[in-house]
Amino acid sequence: MDRTTYLVVGAGVSGLAFANFISNDDYIILERDSEIGGYCKTIHQDGFVWDYSGHFFHFRHKDLEQYLVDRMPNDEIKVVEKCSQILYKDRLVEFPFQKNIHQLPQDEFIECLYDLYFLDKTSTPTNFKEMVYSRFGAGIAEKFLVPYNEKLYACDLSELDVNAMGRFFPYADLDAIVKNFRQADNSSYNSTFTYPSGGAISYVNALASEVKEGGIALNEGLVSIDLKRKVATTTQREIAFEYLISSAPFDKLLDMTALPYPDDAFRYNKVLVFNLGFDKKGWEGKHWVYFPERKYPFYRVGFYDNIFDTERMSLYVEIGYPSGAEVPVEEKLEQTLAGLKEAGVITDHQLVSSHNIVLDPAYVHITQESNNLVEDLRGVLSTRGVYSIGRYGGWTYCAIEDNMIEARSLARQLNQINALPDS
Ligand SMILES: Cc1cc2nc3c(=O)[nH]c(=O)nc-3n(C[C@H](O)[C@H](O)[C@H](O)COP(=O)(O)OP(=O)(O)OC[C@H]3O[C@@H](n4cnc5c(N)ncnc54)[C@H](O)[C@@H]3O)c2cc1C
């Protein structure tokens, strides 16, 4: 049987970042796919550069960003002032919707403002849907926040926790909204974002450059874990481990350990992404546009060509599905092209290149129950040296920076434990 101190599951940003910051290089990174990167892969096709979905970056830890940039000698890092808008009926409204209701037709503006002003401040929301009604009123909720998020999450929003989107939700109070009528301040966590010329995979490659030679076992998946013996079975062998650091989805990790959990506790959506390359330029200046209306199958469309400043329109298009739904790709592509035409994104454009991918899972459905279970069961797993990290390992809503920070702190914690003198 093979042995290792650290068995890392997944060569996405979480697994690779852990390997970067663990000081003992007795590790094996298992990756069931044939390539590294997880959801941060990039496709280079027919002169277009596409990620698995729009992946843009906004680092709060400048030291971490510098660490990556130092390992990306061939990339130019673009720094972009975000322009994101909403196609509301036939007009483009600045994002976030709640701060730009003054851009709506007058009757709808008054409706939103009236509902916002006369909010029922006595109620305490118990779920995400109640939260948007109680913080913004029915006008804003029903014109944008509810339909848009229903398309994205592909579920009834009352199933989600009040705080399901954490710091990624653009909160705004009445004062901020009214001030915005006169002086636009649509700043958000990603008002300025960065993007490497080689795509998101460049950050992954930066992390991979610090992984020891032969440290990644591609095409080798973890199948089961014997928690008592601390032995993992992979698609190819058995490996005894001291610590196992997994970035696989949390429910799948539990299945591999045979730890029980309630049915239906871990719900999520999946997202079909079309990357589409056209023969000529389209809308200028916009980086992404939100589509709350049901008549469009997609909820968001992004414009890589306006980030890279290139001549041909290069889009990513995102469509949300419930986890168990069929994804009829060909049919959806036709509907997507029809929707893009109706919205005026394409006119007589010719599609010259396309790619699609289903992100499954994409957005986990955060609930009080899932939060409590993750906390409790992570505690149980850690008693056997098993740590579940990452966006799906932590069953959370986060960005790649959060994944790297979490992996780095776990590595530092284990470095300290292993540096303790023997008693
Ligand atoms: C639609 C969408 C848009 C996003 N946009 C952004 C953005 O703009 N900016 C941003 O910072 N973040 C964004 N993110 C989040 C970002 O993609 C994730 O935070 C990040 O990729 C998660 O990395 P990870 O390593 O934790 O997980 P993953 O990327 O999922 O990597 C896990 C790896 O584990 C492997 N694996 C799973 N099970 C096994 C097994 N049993 N055995 C072996 N290997 C296994 C998988 O193949 C995979 O390679 C977005 C996510 C989505 C879904």
In percent, how helical is the residue content?
25-40%
Looking at the overall shape, the CATH architecture of the largest domain is: 3-Layer(bba) Sandwich
| CATH fold name of the largest domain | FAD/NAD(P)-binding domain
- Main sheet summary: 7 strands, mixed
Quote the average pLDDT. 95
Q: Strand-and-helix sequence, N→C?
A: EHEEEHEEEHHHEHEEEEHEEEHEHEHEHH
Rounded Rg: 23 Å
What class, by secondary structure content? Answer: alpha/beta
Q: Mind telling me the CATH superfamily name of the largest domain?
A: FAD/NAD(P)-binding domain
Question: Tags for this entry?
Answer:
single chain, 423 residues, alpha/beta, FAD/NAD(P)-binding domain, Alpha-Beta Plaits, seven-stranded mixed β-sheet, 12 helices, 33% helix, binds flavin-adenine dinucleotide
Task: Explain how this protein is built.
The structure is a single chain. The protein has about 425 residues and is of the alpha/beta class. It folds into three domains: about 1-40 and about 55-75 and about 200-265 and about 365-420, FAD/NAD(P)-binding domain (3-Layer(bba) Sandwich); about 95-180, protoporphyrinogen ix oxidase, domain 3, CATH 1.10.3110; about 270-360, 2-Layer Sandwich (Alpha-Beta Plaits). About 35% of the residues lie in helices and about 25% in strands. The protein has twelve helices and 18 strands. Strands 1, 2, 9, 10, 11, 12 and 18 form a seven-stranded mixed sheet that branches. A seven-stranded mixed sheet has the order 7-6-14-15-16-13-17. Helix 1 packs parallel to helix 6, helix 1 (about 15-20) runs parallel beside helix 12 and helix 3 (about 105-115) packs antiparallel against helix 4 (about 130-155). The longest helix has 26 residues, at about 130-155. The mean pLDDT is about 95. Flavin-adenine dinucleotide (FAD) binds near residues 32, 222 and 362.
